[in-house]
Structure formats: structure tokens, C-alpha cells
Amino acid sequence: MFRSLNVAATGMVAQETKLDTIANNLANANTAGYKRQDAEFEDLLYQNVRSATPNAIGGAAPAGTQVGSGVRVVTTSRAFAQGSIQQTGNPLDIAIEGSGFIGVTRASGEIAYSRAGNLKVDAQGRLCTNDGLAIEPPITVPTDATSITIASDGTVSALSAGQRAPTQLGQLQLVTFPNPNGLTALGHNLYTATAASGEPVIGAPGTDGRGTILQGALEGSNVEMVSEMVNLIRTQRAYEINSKVISAADDMLRNATQVR
């Protein structure tokens, strides 16, 4: 009786999840390389009260009668659109213009992937992330390097004291995936490959559809504040409507139980 109570409850739960994704997007509006999320819904099973089939008197109903059982969140997809490029002037900051991820080596030895290009140099001279994870393949900067140059094709060169010509240290590689939405977010601006994302394809920047490298800049978050605020209002209104359905069903149920 009054399945609308359960149906509206599924709607409220779904809108709560959407609100969580909006809150996370807004919280990461200034996170380098962050890609916005969006909760996607699908309807649940239907009860067939009457099918559109021939009946006992020889006729056939033009349409069946189905009653839905609510909604659920089926996925939280990511929009991998390019974020805004912000000039920083820091020679270790890089922005990926186009598709691709930087590979980094985690403490477990596994490879993770990132769009955040705010690189640093650790105590061993290796290029690494803010969390100290070395990029893959590793590139070591000499301790006496006076300047570092990163070309659009990922070639890293350094000019050391007493040298007239820079020395090539290595080349940054970019990684692409058949389905980036299949990546699992680990936090810390990192993703890991899954069966859904497909196997990583590694190559030099600017080749086979990969993006290029821009030194002295960072890719910002692709969160659009106005769009998120509009989504926030819509989600709040949808939650309120579902709560009113529960209130109306409760009133009807109370009236039914008070009938004498």
C-alpha cells in the first residue's frame, strides 16, 4: 500500500548522491587538473499490472499498465573536457593541452595517472608530484642545474653551471585510454586503470592524438561555478518535491487508517 513512500524515498537518496557530487565539484573548483563529476540516474523495475495483450473477450488493450518503483544512481561519470590554462611562470609547472595523463609511480610500485602538472624536485633530484611520487619514466635533475626547459614534445633539458649548451635529461610521456571514464579516482589528483578503462597507451606528447606540454602553466579545474550552482538549485528542488510526496502519502495513509 502506498508504494509512493518507497518511490519518493529512492528519489531523495538519488538526489542526495547528486548533491554530494556537486559539493565535491565546488570543493575542487581550484584543484589543478580536477575533472568534474556528474551523477546519472536510471529508473528501477516496473510492476506490470496489465499487459498490452489479447484479453478474455477477444480484444487487446492499446497500452499496458505499469507502475514504477523509483530511481537509482547508476554511475558518476567524469567530464574530461580541457580545463582553463593558467600561467604561473614556474618552470616545473606543466599543463597538458589536449588528451593524456602523466604516469607516476606509487609507493606500492603500481602506476597511477594524473592531469595535475605542478611538479617538484625531491631530495634525490627526481621530478615528482606534490606527494613525492616520481613521474614515470623517471627524470632526474642535476643538483647544479641553473635552469630547466620542458619542450612541447615533453623533452626535458637542463643547463648546469659552467655549461653553454643544455643537457637533455629525458622525455615526459603521456598516457591515453580507450575509455577515460572507466578510470578509478584515488584522490590526490590520481587515477588508476581498470578493466573498464582499457589498457594504457603510452607515447610522446603530440603523437597519435595526444596533447602537448606547455611549460610554466597549469591546467585548472574544469568546474563551471555557475553551472554547478544551477544544478545545486535543481537538485534541492527535486529533493523537496520528493519529500512532499512522502508527506502527501503519509497524510493519505493516516486518513485511510482513521476510516470507521
Summarize the structure.
The chain has 260 residues and is α+β, with helices and mostly antiparallel strands. It has helices spanning 4-27, 225-257, and strands spanning 37-43, 46-50, 65-68, 71-78, 85-87, 94-97, 101-105, 111-114, 120-121, 127-128, 135-136, 145-150, 155-160, 167-171, 174-176, 184-187, 190-192, 201-203, 212-215, 217-219. 22% of the residues lie in helices and 32% in strands.
What this model shows, in words?
The chain folds into two domains: 4-80 and 223-257, no CATH class; 85-219, no CATH class. It has helices at residues 4-27, 225-257, and strands at residues 37-43, 46-50, 65-68, 71-78, 85-87, 94-97, 101-105, 111-114, 120-121, 127-128, 135-136, 145-150, 155-160, 167-171, 174-176, 184-187, 190-192, 201-203, 212-215, 217-219. Helix 1 packs antiparallel against helix 2 (225-257). It has two helices and 20 strands. It is elongated, with a radius of gyration of 27 Å. It is α+β, with helices and mostly antiparallel strands and 260 residues long. The longest helix has 33 residues, at 225-257. Strand 7 (101-105) and strand 8 form a beta hairpin. The strands form eight sheets. Strands 7, 8, 11, 15 and 18 form a five-stranded antiparallel beta sheet that branches.
Number of domains: 2
Sum up the overall morphology in one term.
elongated
Radius of gyration: 27 Å
Instruction: Indicate the mean pLDDT.
Output: 91
Number of helices: 2
Secondary-structure element series:
HEEEEEEEEEEEEEEEEEEEEH
The total beta strand count reads 20
Assembly context of the chains: single chain
Biggest pleated sheet: 5 strands, antiparallel
Strand content: 25-35%
Structural class: alpha+beta
Fraction of residues in H or I helices: 10-25%
Poorly predicted runs are none
What's the end-to-end separation, in Å? 18 Å
